[in-house]
Amino acid sequence: MWAKTSSSMCRSHHRKVLVLVYVLILLVITVNAKDKKKTADEQNSQTFTQTVESTQNSKIDDDDMDSNTKPLFTDLRTSQVYNFVENSKKKKDKTEDYKTSSSSEETSDILNQKLVEKLRKEIEMLNINDDEVISHEDLYRIITSKEKEFYGTAEETMLFQELSEEEFEQLIKNENKIETTTKITIKEVDPNPTFSDLNSNEIYHTSSPTHSLVPPDVSSATVEIPEPPPKPKVKEEPELTEEEKQAKVLYETAVMILNSTKPDKKRAYDLFKQAAELNHLEAGKIVGQAYFFGDVFPQNLTAARYWFEKLATEKGSPFAQMYLGLMYAAGLGNPPHLAKAILHYTFAALGGDTWAQMVMGYRHWAGLGVVPNCESALTYYRKVAKKVEEELSTNGGSVIQRIRLYDEAENLGSTAGVLDDDLIQYYQFLADKGDVQAQVGLGQLHYQGGRGVEQDHARALNYFMQAADAGNANAMAFLGKMYLEGGNVVKQNNETALKYFTMAAEKNNPVGQSGLGLMYLHGKGVPKDYNKAFKYFSSAANQGWVDGQLQLGNMYYNGLGISRDFKMAIKYYTMASQSGHVLAFYSLAQMHATGTGTVRSCTTAVELFKNVAERGRWGTNLMQAYSDNKEGRVNEALIKYMVLAELGYEVAQSNAAFILDRGDIDIIPKNETFYRALMYWSRAAGQGYSVARVKVGDYHYYGYGTEVDYEIAANQYKIASEQQHNAQAMFNLGYMHEQGLGMKKDIHLAKRYYDLAAETSSDAQVPVALALAKLGVLYSLQHLQEMNFDSLLPNVNLNKILGPDWDLYIMTTLAVMLGIVVYFRRGPQG
Is the pTM of this model over 0.90? Predict the structure, then answer.
């Protein structure tokens, strides 16, 4: 009979009470079946016997195990391991039915001796003293090392052998095919046991090729331990086919053309299309977008749909799923279908598409097509905000310009913050002449972007250098920022950044002080010093610099060099957010989402995360859409605004509604323009845009895209008047009270609303004056109708006062007055 003895041990490092340690040591003892006699001494000296039975011939009955046994937690020292192995080497169990040759016994003894020597070497490599306890991780490594592996069946047992690397690997492939489970029963024993305290009924194995360890928190007598998971195999990339190689070459060539100094977009996109036709995923995305937005290729929604469906079905692309959702939601290239749109959005969001996550976050927040759920909106928006936060540098990212087409149309001559080309050229002329303020201003514009100026760090560096040479502190500080952050234009250089920051800080410049604070906070080019960092940040924050406020919030939040204070962190984060710093919004959102330093508010957290998400690089599409509309590419502008409207941008929603309201488009049927415009006006109104709220009222008042409903119109005007103090809404309410439309006719309330409109906006004073004059006439007529005119003038006789021809006198007077008016209007002749 073959017997395989193993033990394993583990202990708890922090508690000195009971530690589970069981050491699994594979040891094969060949028993001569001829000697049937077993002495009492041999039975008493048998310390730790493990019976290995084949899964093919026998099974261990769970009923044989003592269900009342308690787990053993004990310490076993290396000296005990040595003694056990030495004693086990000398033991020779003898069974009746087993026959073996003398050569087998000799081989067994030699292998046992080698096993002891290898075990000693392995333990010595761990640098563990004899009195130290071996951790279960180290023993597991020893036991499962390749020199001591054991594989066998009931008919055949393979002993530990000196195998070469190749022989061992082949052995593993051939023998390690049987999944097994190790069952261990452990009995409570003396706190300081020896191996002789254990008996052979306490550990059972069923054809286990390797040994597992019981975790320290075992609470039951019998524990089933699965085999350690196999090492993951490195998946080799399949070799590309000739077609795939060709597509890859075409794609990479197109990318090189676009990245060249003089890119040829038409040629590059033609190559992208060829690569897409060869099933190249990234090329297919680019081609689909080009047809969808009308960039480079003529706008073709049918072709765009073809490419997106191809990518979604053949490649499972979340990107394509998201665009299909957009097309179904907005009714582009196919009739609107909300259910299909939500389905595609959901698949894309689960696949990790950022835009789809924004769409689902907005829809859960606003309850559009799904049940309103703040927590779901929080989950989606937090994922997007995290991506934006990771991409942003300390400067807060580029500026996202939000221009409302309605405001621009109502205020003729206004460019809504966009600098005119002539004005930019004028500033460039001043900068070239040496005007320092113009140099700094243009440098900041090109550094951050915005107001119609694209981000261009090369130009920013040039202007800052000129202004810094003239001694301008702001220019020095911004040069420090550029060198601290590094980029394509300038390489990151802490020494240069420190030089410029120091020069600016010496002039008490808050930007320079904040930069020095950052360097001391993170130990960039200088020793890390929280006290100095706090000092510089405080000086910058006291001067109102947003970066100083943000970093002070970070220091209070994390307790860097100062006591952690969440209230102070919120204070400084709020100050920074009022200046529009994206990272401040993100930090506040995290605190409100987790209830750190304030009461948890899901609504506030969602609004803040939404603000951060909308500051992502995709927000630059707002300016692209504005430029398209300004250049007369209305269809292309509308598509971009509709996409951004789906992402939840309120400005995009109102601009899409404005373009649809004008009706000068051809991608939307004429009979659907007002209906779709009303939808976008309603969404923008839901996000607090008062003009959109008034527009919703107007659409219900006149019946645009819906039925005429004066009550709904009046309700919309009331919301805009009471919550948003909109003068137009107040004027409309006055008119509806005057006419009795949708509410009770009341001239007094009408006058009250007219007066409120005049007080709210100076622009409303002239129309209010005319409305009040009209109201006065109506009021007088109404009063006269209520009076008895004959009783009012009983004794008046015009014949007695003016004579019988009094009517001629009046006619002559009116004619003279009319002549005078005509004369003065025509002016002198000749």
Answer: no
